[in-house]
Amino acid sequence: MSDNIEDKLKLRDYLFEFISENKKNLFEKNILNRTRHLTVVLENIYQPHNASAVLRSCDLFGVQDIHIIENSNKYKLSKEVAMGSSKWLNMYKYNTAEENTIACFDKLRSEGYKIVATTPHEKDVMLDELPLDQKTALVFGTELDGLSDVAMNNADAFVKIPMYGFTESFNISVSAALSMFHLTEKIRKSDLEWQLSKEEQVDIHINWATAVIKKSNLIIEEYYSKIKNNE
After folding, report:
1. How confident is the model at residue 82 (pLDDT cuts 50, 70, 90)?
2. Which of 25, 59, 138, 195 is most deeply buried (CB count within 10 A of its CB)?
3. What confidence score (pLDDT) does residue 76 get?
4. Which domains are seen in the chain, by residue range?
5. Around 204, how many Cα atoms within 13 Å sit in the side-chain half-sphere?
């Protein structure tokens, strides 16, 4: 794919010819509410129901990227719960390094993210007190063990959700949904530049189109063949 945004726009418009008007309108509407100012990181989540529910919440709250750390557990999805949400998201897996949590954190920091561990901690702040002036990566761990010591020791900040009952914590999918709802509402009401850039929007439109068009790889090959023959 060309790095030139004008070329990307032409490819997107070509692909849009193969989808319904209704789907095209949904793409154009939903892209305006997508964000990378907030992203979600899952460390060692292995229960398919919870893993899939988090993806579904990411899609519904407009959080485009999800980062999956596979140290001791492999990430598995439940199609019934995910409801196809994975095809609308950019998913990044970390499973080849000696310490995948550090590899993930390093990549996120290189992209300007602050690493925020979602767990009770002596230095934590409540969810509504979390500053969002910097791009923020929310890190969630397993229900049984929580976040690893590596994640805790290398986080930049800690946040917790207010609780007023006897149960120790929310489950992972509920914690993620509550956090995303509150924080995405907060950034949308702010003066922050939380929306995707024009080029990011086009790239994602292309990904979405290829996800719903049958044999999209052949259509893209045909497109570039036509371009080459017209040169």
Report:
1. very low
2. 138
3. 63
4. 1-34+200-231 (no CATH), 36-194 (3.40.1280.10)
5. 29
